[in-house]
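Deliverable D2.4 — example input (structure tokens):
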């Protein structure tokens, strides 16, 4: 029997921020903890970029997004038309498909291929974050607010309406709850007996996490925080700096509130699968789109770095699979896996032929306890990294405009020059072994140069 598939993608979730990890006692994620207890935790799971747009472009396709020039925000784009998405692969295999949540592959516009209705999803409720500074407003979205705010403020505050298909969908209320409701409605459809693929892409826990329902603020004793009021009232850069770490009071509390409320929606979806008898024939996968954002109080302990960087904290992410009959409950693997592996693994599980040319691999055997040798690469233009076995080489042009902007605006220290680490001994990348092992630096640099050539890119910086 073909399994149902639920893919849950969060936004900027810190690696340490799951209560089952026992690192922080103020984190409450019972649904994610349950998922891990009933499935497998992939401890060495990676995405293909430390920021959302290129990461999501690689994820939806199963191919390295650098193949079509997606390196950073400035040039990220949806995969070309000839690249099938995981939704299209499953749809051709007879699945009904639904997408609910944030869309951010690049500068997508209504009706183009980057919108879910145009790359394999039949039922949709989504917001175009590429038009809104990479985020969706947690509480308010309407044409009236867009008109009232004006183009710049509407873009920065992300109050554009959601979309059902290509049509606008205005909704006043808490976005996380609405996305969870829509996903459950799709999963529970009694009139369609086809297996389903449901992709639930939360905006949580992307900043600005103070955008909470008033009753939640009151219940938690948290003050309201004002959105940006527009260029005629205040400078956006100054306002933004006061809205992120370290300047926003109660920042960690807002973040944990959003995480807890997202986890509650995941729990309701798991409960629905149980009630409807679908749990035993449903693959459920959870991951986040890039490393936790420390400017939003996400914590990536024990890994160094944050979103935007190619330290482990920027690209190693929480990933959990629940797959009854295939994955041992409560298991754990340290075999490196990638978000690129979602597409081929889903395709194989559905009985579909895995599309030619994917860069990911079917990891069903890994999830069942097997092993896999691979080399992983990251490339952002001003910084690159490669992991081969336990060795990882990270190179960054710290004098680049982008690196300087990240340090100034996002408080994200990207590092400097070349850094070589042995991840088995030093997962936090605290010790630079480059001077002691020039042979490894040369070997890994050559590996990355060959990979870049295969991607159609010039030689790396550094």
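Example output (designed residues):
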């Amino acid at each position: 029997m073909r399994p149902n598939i639920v893919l849950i993608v969060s936004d900027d979730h810190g690696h340490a921020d799951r209560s089952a990890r026992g690192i922080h006692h103020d984190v409450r994620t019972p649904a994610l903890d349950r998922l891990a207890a009933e499935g497998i935790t992939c401890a060495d799971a990676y995405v293909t970029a430390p920021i959302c747009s290129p990461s999501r472009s690689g994820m939806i396709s199963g191919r390295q997004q650098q193949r079509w020039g997606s390196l950073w925000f400035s040039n990220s784009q949806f995969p070309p038309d000839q690249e099938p998405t995981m939704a299209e692969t499953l749809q051709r295999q007879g699945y009904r498909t639904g997408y609910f949540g944030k869309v951010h592959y690049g500068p997508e516009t209504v009706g183009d291929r980057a919108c879910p209705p145009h790359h394999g999803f039949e039922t949709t409720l989504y917001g175009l974050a590429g038009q809104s500074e990479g985020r969706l407003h947690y509480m308010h979205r309407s044409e009236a607010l867009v008109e009232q705010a004006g183009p710049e403020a509407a873009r920065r505050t992300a109050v554009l309406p959601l979309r059902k298909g290509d049509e606008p969908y205005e909704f006043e209320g808490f976005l996380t709850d609405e996305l969870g409701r829509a996903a459950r409605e799709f999963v529970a459809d009694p009139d369609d007996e086809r297996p389903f693929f449901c992709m639930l892409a939360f905006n949580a826990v992307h900043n600005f996490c103070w955008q909470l329902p008033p009753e939640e603020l009151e219940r938690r004793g948290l003050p309201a925080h004002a959105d940006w009021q527009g260029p005629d009232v205040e400078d956006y850069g100054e306002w933004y700096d006061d809205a992120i770490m370290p300047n926003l009071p109660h920042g960690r509390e807002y973040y944990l509130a959003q995480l807890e409320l997202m986890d509650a929606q995941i729990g309701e979806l798991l409960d629905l699968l149980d009630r409807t008898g679908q749990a035993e024939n449903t693959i459920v996968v959870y991951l986040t789109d890039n490393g936790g954002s420390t400017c939003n109080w996400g914590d990536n302990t024990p890994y160094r770095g944050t979103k935007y960087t190619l330290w482990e904290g920027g690209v190693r992410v929480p990933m959990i699979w629940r797959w009854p009959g295939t994955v041992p409950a409560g298991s754990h693997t340290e075999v490196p896996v990638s978000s690129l592996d979602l597409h081929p693994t889903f395709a194989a599980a559905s009985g579909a032929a895995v599309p030619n040319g994917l860069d990911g691999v079917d990891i069903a055997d890994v999830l069942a306890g097997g092993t896999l040798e691979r080399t992983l690469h990251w490339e952002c233009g001003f910084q690159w990294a490669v992991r081969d076995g336990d060795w990882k080489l990270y190179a960054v042009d710290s004098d680049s405009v982008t690196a300087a902007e990240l340090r100034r605006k996002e408080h994200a220290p990207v590092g400097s020059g070349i850094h070589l680490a042995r991840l088995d001994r030093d997962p936090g990348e605290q010790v630079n072994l480059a001077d002691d092992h020039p042979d490894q630096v040369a070997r890994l640099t050559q590996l990355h140069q060959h990979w870049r050539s295969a991607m159609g890119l010039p030689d790396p910086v550094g």
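The domain at 381-455 is CATH 3.30.1120.10 (Arylsulfatase, C-terminal domain).
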